Amino acid sequence: MSGLATYLPASIVEYYLSHEDTPFKPPFRHRYKTVALFADVSGYTAMCEAMSELGQIGDEMLAKHLNSYFEQLVRIVSKEGGDVFKFAGDAIIVLWPQSEEDLETLTRRAAQCALEIDSQMQNIRMSDDVVLCIKVGVGVGDLSILHVGGVFNRLEYVAIGTPLVQAFNAEHHIVARDALPNGNLLDPNNIKKTFSSSTGQVVMSPEAWEIVKEYFNADIKDEHAFLKSCKNEKKRKKKRERKREEKRETHRIDQS
Length: 256
Fold this sequence. Notes:
The protein is an alpha+beta fold. Helices cover about 40% and strands about 30% of the residues. It has a single domain, classed as Nucleotide cyclase, GGDEF domain (Alpha-Beta Plaits), CATH 3.30.70.
């Protein structure tokens, strides 16, 4: 299992490690309550069409740009405790694994992660002609991970449930990119306009928002929360700095 852990989501690895003595006969499932985040790179299809016009070089440029973008995205997700469950073309599905933290804490982590993505991953210039942006939806609830297969000793895992439905639906509330102004995919001006984005590309389901609304600022539209920022971020920052200073002072006293 240690050799496979690098290639599997933490949710899958932890489940198998905790059931090492259990014979697995698919299909089977395991359930838990968690948060899901769905992040979609907007304008990817148009970019593929533009790059395909350049032939093999275009294919290589597409892979290079997308891999670089997702590498930065995964770093943000990992920092907030999220686990990339699936890469789905131009999108990723992120789940928060089972832990000792309660659902409110996990939902706050997911909201903070989404805001961080919106802050750092919008209007990223990958080259002179490619600027990428992203849309994020967040949902919460009961999740099931199905383990299917068994033929030729191969297994596949599929996540289903309320958190994913909510996250997909929330992401769909975000306005799509504008159409190309003159229809020329290879016009650099068109590419920049197609893949650029304004902020405010994070939406939480009503159920997820209900859990964390006292901690974040948002605009409510069709019962969905368009996240804007954390509440009292400056106060929390000062509080964290004060705690760090207290720890340093305690350490100095202990040393003396």
